[in-house]
User: What shape does this take?
Amino acid sequence: MLSFRLVDTDSFKQLMSMAVPQYVVPSRHYFSKTAVPSLHNQVSDKIKCALRNAICGKVHLTTDTWTTSSSYSASSSSASTSSSSQPHTFTTNFSTGRGKSQQAILKLICLGDRPHTAQELWRGIEQQTYEWILPVGLKPGLVVCDNGRNLVAALGLAGLTHIPCLAHVLNLVVQKFILQLPRHVKAAA
Assistant: This one.
């Protein structure tokens, strides 16, 4: 999650010269224009190939939302800060023809200052559906996520079935239990 500029810094070059003296560190332009796009294409091709082998014609999804004070701009690869940044991950879960369950993170989407409405969240899910799932002849299946009102509403807009995330529900139960403990029990812990 660091900027491509890191490879051009003197401290990084010094570290690499000590770690592997014979290695010549390529420029940030090599990483941003050649290495990373090539790696992206290779990984994308492998995911699409695996998706083509999915059984049942459906891909089940998980998605998560969070707010962070530090986000990374995909266009410049430089760090910026925004307290309203809400990246969303879209992970597919599918079984191949051999019955082996697989998963892949499709994309991180940063909403930045855009409103975090159900419609905006659905656009992110829809974008990933059109990019990854529909082109290989599959349909989105169940979607596992937390119980966030806007996210659940977004799934409703799409007609997708929401499955509450067990870890999230369990966390809520534990938090509620802890809040109900008497003060002297909390202090002892």
Summary: The two ends are 36 Å apart (CA to CA). The first helix runs from residue 10 to 19. Confidence is low (pLDDT under 50) at residues 71-87.
